[in-house]
Amino acid sequence: MTDEERGGHSSIRVALLGDTADDVDVAALKKWLEREVSLERWVNDNTIRIHERPRTVDAGDAGDAGVTMGAGMDIVLVLIGAVTPGLFERVLAATESGVKAWRENRRSVEQGTPPVPEITPHAPPDGRADTPDRDPEAPDSEG
């Protein structure tokens, strides 16, 4: 049974796109988000977990997934437990703010154009846990 069939958690995927994106940027952004005051509180009380995961792209009709060029990892913020729409929106807003602050900081300390962020929320419809991203540390719900 796949993670999608088992069901997942509400999550937010952050990808860095563009020719300047690399895994060093992904690691730096992850550390930035973990220390972002508004997110750090939720990390410390185990409301969210922040992970890196390999980026794959759908190969279309062939059905095979492949690794993309550039940064090979994405950042996934996984919300743990019962998630209200209000909490999800606050975490999403804090993520967007943190990514924007990181990008501005990177622009000021490094040459070149910073990678372009793509932030994709995955909220379970109707409050169900059936999103494509699943917390890899969560126990299986199979019984």
Tell me what the structure shows.
- With 143 residues, this protein is an alpha+beta fold.
- It has helices spanning 3-6, 23-35, 37-44, 85-109; strands at 11-17, 48-54, 56-58, 65-67, 73-79, 116-122.
- A hairpin with a 6-residue loop joins strand 3 and strand 4 (65-67).
- The chain is globular, with a radius of gyration of 16 Å.
- The two termini are 12 Å apart.
Properties at a glance:
globular, two-stranded antiparallel sheet, about 25% strand, disordered C terminus, 4 helices, disordered N terminus, alpha+beta, about 140 residues, four-stranded antiparallel β-sheet
Main sheet: strand order: 2-5-1-6
Which spans of ≥5 residues are poorly predicted at pLDDT below 50?
1-7, 59-68, 128-136, 138-143
Which strand-content bin applies to the residues? 15-25%
Helix content: 25-40%
Distance between the termini: 12 Å
